[in-house]
Write a structure and sequence with these properties.
Elements lengths: L14 E4 L2 E4 L3 E2 L7 H21 L3 H12 L6 E3 L13 E3 L4 E2 H8 L5 H5 L1 H14 L1 H4 L3 H10 L23 H19 L9 H4 L13 E3 L5 E4 L10 H13 L4 E6 L4 H15 L1 H7 L5 H13 L4 H15 L1 H4 L9 E6 L7 H10 L5 E3 L7 E6 L4
Parallel strand pairs: 8-9
Antiparallel strand pairs: 1-2, 2-3, 4-5, 5-6, 7-8, 9-10, 10-12, 11-12
Helix pairs in contact: 1-2, 1-5, 1-8, 2-8, 3-5, 7-8, 10-16, 11-12, 11-14, 13-14
Length: about 400
Amino acid sequence: MSLREFHGYRASVRWRLVSGGVEVEESGVERSRGTPVTATRVWDAYAADINRVARECRVPCHLVVATICTESAGNADAVRREPGYVSDEKTPGRISAGLMQTLISTARETLSMSLGRDFLLDPGGSILAGTSYIAKQAPITGLDPPLVAAAYNAGRLTPNDGVENRWKLLQYPIGTGKHVDRFVRFFNDAVAVLSTHATAPAVGLDALLGEGPAAAPPTPIATTPARDSISIEFAPTARGEVVSAYSRQVLEDVLRLSSLRRALVTSTSRTPEEQARAMYNNLESEGVASQRDLYRHGGGKYVIDVYERSKADGKTRAAIVADMTEKIREVGPTRVSRHASDPKELNVFDVAPSSIADHVTFEKRAKGDRRISLFLTPPLDPAYHLEIPQPTA
């Protein structure tokens, strides 16, 4: 059935897709009251990331905007802990983070990455994980907006006959239709905003209004092909441009000697602001004690002191990160983290262990390469940590 025709889910209200968005039978195209402030703010701030990922996943941008508006109202720092949460690592299925509020466990499974909270608190990372999840669920939702909302919220499409649930789809709070109600209003707001905005959506509403093929499997991470079919990939949290051709060649050589074809770089050099944000996220998720142990050498302990004082003063996250950034500059970025080194002198980056098919051989080859001055493996470091001094002119 075409989405242009009225349809429903079992005994639910019926709806169809029109040029103005989702039209509910009898109530029409429902919108938020007043001007679409939230949808406008989200598109203004994140249009570039949304367009890039939507194009790769073949998901209409309006669905991404509606999900962000519904899940976090555009707050990139949003974190939600579910009942039973213990820690990010012990209960990754009990904590959602970032713009699209994807569970850490869901993001890991969807992207096949050993990512953490810091990945999802990066706007690009959250948009990648959430949009890829929408694309993964496309075979059961057909990218039909109300079905997308329910499946994203509950993890699947399941009937619910609650009296207050006109959609008859399981969603939270259980027994109500509040989640899909909000999503539909935001989706229709997004349709209105994107139709007149100076930045056009890379994947428009016509992808749903037309009779084209279903969404293709996502290709979420940009790939840099290397010779002999070896690829070095960069997650959204990594800045590929700071990894030199020399360092890429070193990593390619290690992969080639290990008979491997792929590696995913999850973290590269960081500015003081990026280092402060990473430390803040880890302090929040892993606790002060574990981070003091990690940063027991060097200047990181002074940055943690600032975190504790600012936290005790009741400051906001943004203010605490600003205080930490100032302390990092005062102490000296490289005394806090090797990731803050000048990439022109030292390339420091992490490789996701989940992207390495043969750990034993990769570790052996990396440890034996004299061009790599430091190579750390889990559990000393959550990822494979490589430091490569750059050749002098």
